[in-house]
Amino acid sequence: MECSLSMLIPKEVAQSIVHETESIMNKNINFMDEEAKIIASLEPTRVGDFHEGAAEVLRTEQKVVISSKETYLGAKPGINLPVRLHEQVVGVIGITGDPEEVDQLGALLQRMTEILIKEAYLDEQVELENQARETFVTEWINNRFDDEKLFATRGWMFGINIYKARVAVLLEMSGFQDYWYKRIGTSDVDVKEEVNLQRYRRAVERLISRHFPEKNEHVLIPNGSSSYTLLLSVNEQTEHQQRKRLITSRINEIQQALEKTYQQKSVAGIGSVCHSPKELWKSVEEADRALRFGVDHQRAFYFFEDLGVESFMYDLSESIREDFIERKLQPSELTSIPDCFHTLETFYKNDGSIKATAEALHIHKNTLQYRLKKVMEVTGYDPRNINDSTLLQIALAFYKIT
Fold it and tell me: Can you give the residue ranges of the Putative sugar diacid recognition domain (predicted)?
């Protein structure tokens, strides 16, 4: 086990303990690492100095008392105590003063420090386990495994059954990036902000997890700074629409909790059910497309199966989409027609019904007919013709995300 005091207790924390001890008890303490170097002291000039008394503690693993008659390089009269973690000495704490006066205080500080590093060690272990789990899930959703049985065994180590039918959900906190950029721009940027970001992400992860009490059934990992990947276990016997309603209910609960707790709106994309470990990547990819469509259209969530032409349009480059839009819609000329794009969207939403579209737009049927005729004159495509309307609807879908 490779551990040290400096690894487990940040220097800033050690320094704050030094200052608090001095202000409350009027005593000076020093923290020394596994190399007997001072890492925290009331005297900044001593930080980094070698402490011979600490070196003796590390050698003997016993308390070392330094009186005024004894001399140790870099040391002052007082006591120096080993700090242990799991029976291993990982550092030294020293208290300056008459050894008899500071002995009891030394024992107290020794115990407090050992409790602190034990908590830090446990936190580190949890974080390492989280990272290992995230690595495993990332390999899974990217289909980066050959031996399925071996991979399944690794999954059991994390309590994950890769053979369960699952639905991928990608959840993105839509305002988070702007929030964090603003925060960084108005503060002294240092590693603390990155630590705060990680704490925030873990807190959000815990909040989401609370909505899935069946922890061994579902999988959740962070995905970037503001996104999360959920792999929901589903009952294959559940009727399709009922399953959609259950997923919708869970997503709604999570989104409401995020907004209430963190004042963050979120968007979710939901993929199709996958039935084998090798199919999971497809559900994740579908969820990503549904998410992007939801973001572009300001929808709280979207199921991939509910997408039409939108399901493949993100595969095309922006330049290809723009070229198609220009050739089929000629948007710069269509703007001369009042409410043109909204008119076309409403027309197709109402299955090409002149009556229903005119009512929805609160215009006369003749006005609608005039607009549709103008679209045909500008583009060369008749919105009322089945073949032409297909091209126009594809171009409209591209236009909305460009």
Answer: 11-140
What is the Cα–Cα distance from 233 to 222, expressed in whole angstroms?
Answer: 18
How does pLDDT run across 253-282, given as a tens digit for each residue? 999 999 999 888 899 999 999 999 999 999
Backbone angle region of 231, left / alpha / beta, with phi > 0 → left and psi within -120 to 50 → alpha: beta
**CATH hierarchy code of domain 5-124:** 3.30.450.40
Band of residue 181 on the pLDDT scale cut at 50, 70, 90: low
Q: What CA–CA distances, in Å, run from 73 to 67, 82, 96, 277?
A: 13, 18, 14, 62
**Length of the chain as a residue count:** 402
**Three-class SS state of 272:** strand
> Which carries the bigger pLDDT value, residue 68 or residue 382?
382
Residue extents of the structural domains in the chain: 5-124, 165-313, 318-401
d(CA 291, CA 294) in angstroms, rounded, equals 5
Task: Give the span between the Cα atoms of 128 and 8, in whole angstroms.
Answer: 14
DSSP-based three-state secondary structure for 151:
helix
